[in-house]
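Lab notes, practical 5.
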Amino acid sequence: MTLQRAAVQHSSSTWRQPVPPVASAARVALVGQIAEAILARSPGRLLVGIDGLTAAGKTSFGHEVAERIAATGRPVLRATLDDFKRPWKDRHLYDRESGEGYYRNAYDYDSVRRLLLDPCRSCEAESCSLCAIDPLTQLDHSARRSPLAPDSVLVVDGVFAFRPEIDDYWDYRVWLDVDAELSVRRGALRDQDWAGSDAESLHRDRYLVAQRIYLDEVAPLPRVDAVVDNADFTRPRLVPRPRTPRPPVTGRDPFDALVIRTDYTDDGAWRAVRAALAEDPESAAHVVDDPAWAGAGVDEALAAVAGDDELSVVFLADRATMTSPHRALLAVTALTREECDDDEEYARLTAFGARFRTAPAAVHGIHANLSLANMGFEEYAGAAHDDPDGIFRTF
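Output from the prediction step:
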C-alpha cells in the first residue's frame, strides 16, 4: 500500500528559504534516520527543535526532515525562531547589536510560547501561528493561524532553541555541528548581499559572540537527541552525543511501577500527577523526583534501568505531562531487540511504537500486567493509538 503524503505548512514570512535540492544519497539516508527516530517518539503531536551555530544549515535540515516526515503521512508544520524576534523598530529600547545584546534581547520567547509552542503542546488547541513578526517586512503575521491535527509534527529551527525559556517543549532535539570559523565563513557569504563588507564582522563580533555566551551558560549539547556533523552537506554524519550523567535508579521494589520526573516547570501539575498515582491505596510507585533528571530523554531513562531485568516499562513525567490537561505520562517499553527471537517478534511487540501516553491512574495496572506477562505492550499502545486524545485510560 502506498502512503499518502501529508502537507507541510510553512510560515508566511518573506524570510522563508526554499526546500533545498537533494545533495547526496548519504544525506537522504541520514535525514531518513533522524525522521524515523522522531516518529518513534509518539503517534501524537511532536515538537522538534533544530539548533546549532549560525549558518550551520538548520533551516535546510529542518525542511528536509519535514519533507521526509510528511512523506509518511504525518502532517508537518515548519517554523523558524527568526520569525519571533522583537520588532526591529524597537531596538533603541534595548541592545540588540552587540553579541551579548543579541543573545539576551533579540528573540521574543513569550511570543514563541504563546503563539506557537503552547498551542502545539495543547491537546485542545486546533491552530497555531507560525510567524509573529516578518524579519524583512516587519509586518505582524501573528493573526494568521495554521491548523493543527492530533498527529501534527512541528519542526522548528533557530539559534538558541534550547534556552531554558523554551527547552522543555521539545520532544526531540537536533544539534547541527560546524566549527566556529566555518560558521563565520558561511554566514558572511550568505549575508553579503545585504550586509556587504560588514558581513564577516557581523558574524564574528555579534553572532559568534552570542553563540559562545549561549554555549557557556546553557550547555545544550548534553541534552540533545542527535548531533549531526554538517560541515559537508553531501556527507553529514551522526557523531557521539556528550551526556550529563544522571543519578542511578536504585531501591525499586519489583511490585512498584517506576515513574521518573524529567520536567520541573510546574509543581502544581506534578502534585496532580502524584495524587492520581496514589488513588489506588493498594499499589505503589517508585518515584524519582530529583532535579538532576531535568530534561532527560527516553534513552537516558532506559540506560539508567538497563540492569533491572524485572522492569518491563518506564513512565516519564515530562513537559507534555505537565502541560496536558490529562497529565498523561509517557510509557516506554524496556524491551530491546536483543531480548526477542527475531525482528518479526520485536516488530509485533512494538507494532504501535515503543511508547505511548497513559493516564496516571492506569500506571499500576500497566506495570503489573506487563511484569506478569498477562498482556503485551502493543495492546496498551494500540488502545492509546485508538483513543481520540492518544491516551490509554482503561480497557
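Observations recorded by the TA: The two ends are 30 Å apart (CA to CA). DSSP finds twelve helices and 15 strands in the chain.
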